[in-house]
Design goal:
The protein contains 4 helices and 6 strands. The protein has about 140 residues and is an alpha+beta fold. The protein has one domain: 2-Layer Sandwich (Alpha-D-Glucose-1,6-Bisphosphate, Chain A, domain 4). The strands form 2 sheets. It has a 3-stranded antiparallel β-sheet with strand order 1-6-5. It has a 3-stranded antiparallel β-sheet with strand order 2-3-4, with helices on one face. A hairpin with a 2-residue loop joins strand 5 and strand 6. About 15% of the residues are buried.
């Protein structure tokens, strides 16, 4: 399932937004603010690229038919899990501020029911992005 979400960081410049969203402290704060526990954040810079890895346990806000498969929590560690989103995140200077666009493809590799679960995973990702952008705007 394709997702394409664009959010605005208001009048904050790209460098300030990038500094915030790529900081271990903010990534940890955002996970805590979303109700996560067992949070492990790793920010690695190499060759001009930044890789952010977040492993956390998150309360599952999914329909009952999904909770029957996942339990009350979902461990968000995309690597090695049957649910994943592959895509891009772009920060862009726009109108004196910064826009943040995430585009990707959500897949759930569970036979027979994966396609039914994908919209719920996409909804959770979209909600998380919106929440993190709103939190980020209060920190800039």
């Amino acid at each position: 399932m394709k997702i394409n979400e664009t959010h605005s960081y208001g009048d904050a410049d790209v460098e300030a937004v990038f500094g915030l969203i790529s900081s271990e402290a903010f990534r940890t704060e955002a996970a805590e603010d979303a109700g996560a526990s067992d949070i492990d954040v790793d920010v690695t810079e190499s060759g001009g690229a930044v890789t952010i890895t977040i492993v956390r346990t998150q309360p599952a806000e999914m329909p009952d038919f999904v909770k029957k498969l996942t339990g009350d929590t979902v461990k968000v560690s995309i690597i090695g899990q049957p649910a994943e989103m592959l895509g891009t995140a772009v920060l862009e200077a726009k109108g004196g501020g910064t826009s943040f666009t995430v585009a990707g493809d959500v897949t759930v590799k569970i036979p027979f029911i994966g396609k039914k679960i994908e919209p719920e995973v996409a909804k959770a990702i979209k909600g998380s992005l919106k929440h993190e952008v709103e939190l980020g705007k209060t920190r800039l």
